[in-house]
Amino acid sequence: MKAASGIRLTSEEMKHIALFESITGAAVRDCIIDEEHNRIIIVVKEGDMGIAVGRRGRNIKLLEKLTGKRHEVVEFSEDPRKFFINVLKPAEVLNVRIVEKPDGRVVAVVTVNPKDKGIAIGKNGKNAQKIRMLAKRYFQIDHVAIT
Predict the structure, then answer these.
(1) Which CATH superfamily is domain 91-146 in?
(2) What confidence tens digit (pLDDT) does each residue in 67-113 have?
(3) Which of these, 144, 146, 141, lies nearest to 104 by C-alpha position?
(4) Cα angle 108-73-15, degrees, rounded to a multiple of 5
(5) Domain range 11-75, CATH architecture
(6) Torsion of CA 81, 134, 86, 61, to 10 degrees
(7) Maximum C-alpha span of the chain
(8) Looking at the whole model, is its pTM more than 0.85?
(9) Which of 7, 40, 108, 109 registers the highest number of CB atoms within 10 A of its CB?
């Protein structure tokens, strides 16, 4: 399953990418401004998570102070299974199954450690919404179920 590359960014998202890259030195693949949850989701190049966050989260704290919005950073992977594990961190992902239904829809079932289910779903389902949005955006997966 190949990751999509035809993602369109708004000028506002491009400004956030420029700011993020200038502060962190990390290469950004994508930026999503999620007004509903007052957050900015940044997807960084595989291997850039450490420099993106900075020592003790220094870079993220600075960005949040400058923008007034919460920043959530996800490390990209071409492998949807590995990407889902990255999106749901720190929840422990036990298994990821991706199946194509007879009607052509692609569905992912992500099984997490039962003690981490609350973390994986997030308050008011915001983490579940994030993984569904990113799965659709990068891998044309129509639905993600967290079990």
Answers:
(1) K homology (KH) domain (3.30.300.20)
(2) 999 999 999 999 999 999 999 999 999 999 999 999 999 999 999 99
(3) 141
(4) 115
(5) 2-Layer Sandwich (3.30)
(6) 180
(7) 48
(8) yes
(9) 40
